Amino acid sequence: MATVTTSSPATLQSCKHASHGVVRYCSPLPWRRRSYSQVSTRATASSHGQPSATTGGRVEAPVGIAAEAGEEGDSIRRLQNGPDVRGVALEGEKGRPVDLTPLAVEVVAESFGEWLREELQRPEGEELRVSVGCDPRLSGARLSAALFAGLARAGCSVFDMGLATTPACFMSTILPRFNYDASIMMTASHLPYTRNGLKFFTKRGGLTSVDVEKICNRAAQKYVARKMGLGSRGTPPVVMRVDLMSAYSQHLRDIIKQRVAHPTHYDTPLKGFKVIVNAGNGCGGFFTWDVLEKLGADTTGSLHLEPDGMFPNQMPNPEDATAMSLTRDAVLAHGADLGVVFDTDVDRSGVVDDTGAAINGDRLIALMSAIVLDEHPGTMVVTDARASDGLTRFIASRGGHHCLYRVGYRNVIDKGVQLNNDGVETHLMMETTGHGALKENYFLDDGLEGGVGSLIMDLEEPAESVLLRMNILGEPKHAKQRGTMAVEAFKNYIQEDKLSGWVLDDCGDCSVGEGCLVDTNDHPIDVDAYMYRAKFYNENMRPLGMVHVRQSVHNPNIALNMQSYLPGGCKSMARDLHERFLLASGVNEFLDTREVEKFVK
């Protein structure tokens, strides 16, 4: 086992990761091991139904069990959300039963461990080291116990980082003192407290949607086998507790000190700066006391720093109006230079400048683009296709290039990696939601910070921006197929000239066309959800705006992101889509269009 680094005092603390309501206590001393004997585990079903190198000859379920009990297996497959796993972990959502159960988490974790061993080509018996972090959600303790058990069944050594962040989880595979083979972050990001989920990392970065689909298919077979009582009990996991966040915080401080290189106070380069942090009671509080304050910043007035899995003050989400408003008020009240709003797991952020102006969405991308293009002239910037034409012009005015791509942080990051591999210099990849990655930071999906608003004063913004959603009707198991049908019907209507005035966007010079979905690269990235971007012209061929139609990977609905160049343009576009597409095509038979109808009245 690797040496455990600890920097906290040896005070009595709760070891909450236990099942059946049992909570034991242990001292956070070096080399402290914990055995989770309360977790019941049974034998699993491999994808082949036979004992394998990754199962050590245990009894496995026969081939075809998942098909025979299709609905139970599909309940695990439906937990996949693009490159993540997400579900309802606690009662409390109307019409949404709990589906991310301890058994579901256990079989997914075991399947991930087996997939990892195959990917790394590690023989049975050779140690695989996997770290685990979590956000403060109330379901975390119970589900973590199941996660540890599943990893242990796959032959992995488990290292519990406790409360952590998504970027820190990835860095646990890179930082020299840790250097784990893989990491899992248990979080549902900005979603309600009733949800939870899993994000997976190897040293190459986050898993792709195809990787997670394979893992969930394998897990579905195991789930059905466990429900049938097949197999024997697994060995209770032994878990090592490690302090990764102290090392990660030091890593961040070192980067900032090196980049600023202050001539008179190198170790405190933020001395004299006032920064407000709004952590939303998620995982981001460490950024005040372990990063900013140690670099000399004054963080007086920061908000909601203590972790609280009920998120009582606001949703920890940079796109949440309440979160941004509270941060604005704090910045103005304390005369701060900057305010930063983090999401729950600190891989997204929004910024408020010293005047109280919000810098998120296109503004945050423009800010980061201005900084990156100053250091890397001519670089490509990859964003999702919800970004505006004004952002494209802003990047071009600074000598950069803009690639519009599919929504989804892994899609945007993977496209940047692909472009760099193809010789197209791409230093910034960023979603309009605030997920961002830099080439020089291992393409890490990280909560990026901003600067001053004066850098983006010439950014042209849409006259209007509107987001409407249409729920997909019927059984949840049919939602993905119906969502794909609706989005594809939109594309077909345009291509078949049934929607005059609408044109699919070409989306920039990055081997992407047909509304930002079709990738003409020699090795195209797999599609995890269907979406198209189209522009709308009036009868005089004057552009009115654009719409981005997409499947949500998190919920059974279709999102309509509209941007208008003229006041009233969003209502005109929505009315045209409602009359000439939603009703004419018949997709309203399985889409709830009431939100669109209310908007156009």
UniProtKB/TrEMBL annotation:
- Its EC number(s): 5.4.2.2
Its required cofactor(s), as named, are: Mg(2+)
Which named protein is this?
phosphoglucomutase (alpha-D-glucose-1,6-bisphosphate-dependent)
Keyword Phosphoprotein in the entry? The reply is yes
Query: Region Disordered: start and end of each range?
Result: 37-58
Q: Give the UniProt keywords, A-Z.
A: Carbohydrate metabolism, Glucose metabolism, Phosphoprotein
Q: Indicate whether Magnesium appears among the record's keywords.
A: no
Under catalytic activity, the entry for this protein gives: O-phospho-L-seryl-[protein] + alpha-D-glucose 1-phosphate = alpha-D-glucose 1,6-bisphosphate + L-seryl-[protein]; alpha-D-glucose 1-phosphate = alpha-D-glucose 6-phosphate; alpha-D-glucose 1,6-bisphosphate + L-seryl-[protein] = O-phospho-L-seryl-[protein] + alpha-D-glucose 6-phosphate
Pfam families, alphabetized: PGM_PMM_I, PGM_PMM_II, PGM_PMM_III
